[in-house]
Design brief:
Elements lengths: L1 H32 L6 H7 L1 H7 L7 E4 L5 E3 L3 H40 L1
Antiparallel strand pairs: 1-2
Helix pairs in contact: 1-2, 1-4, 2-3, 3-4
């Protein structure tokens, strides 16, 4: 029972840390997008899971060209859905990574403690 309780606590801590990390990275990304002195690569790196999902969906139809001759694509509500799904995908991804790190750390401490005795 105690081991199950400890694993549940470890999962809950990991889940809360996953939510916090996702929120922090999303805030960094959004603030970089609206800041003049921040590199857009930082925003793209902070929301890598959104970029990964958005690359799977092709752009909308071309509605014209800008002044440089580059095509301008029609915006689509699908990309808002992709943004939401990408941000929400960060929570289980980061939860899993944090859980593995914490589990390994506490297991290492337990092994180290038992080897000292």
């Amino acid at each position: 029972m105690s081991q199950n309780c400890n694993q549940l606590k470890l999962f809950l801590i990991s889940f809360l840390c996953g939510i916090a990390l996702t929120a922090i990275l999303t805030t960094v990304s959004v603030s970089c997008e609206f800041s003049d002195n921040c590199d857009s690569k930082i925003a793209a790196t902070a929301l890598w899971q959104v970029n990964l999902l958005s690359k799977t969906i092709p752009p909308g139809p071309v509605i014209g060209n800008d002044t440089n001759g580059q095509p301008v694509y029609e915006g689509s509500p699908v990309f808002i859905f992709i943004l939401l799904m990408g941000v929400l995908a960060g929570i289980p991804i980061y939860t899993f990574i944090i859980y593995l790190v914490l589990y390994s750390y506490f297991r290492f401490l337990k092994i180290k403690k038992s080897s000292v005795l």
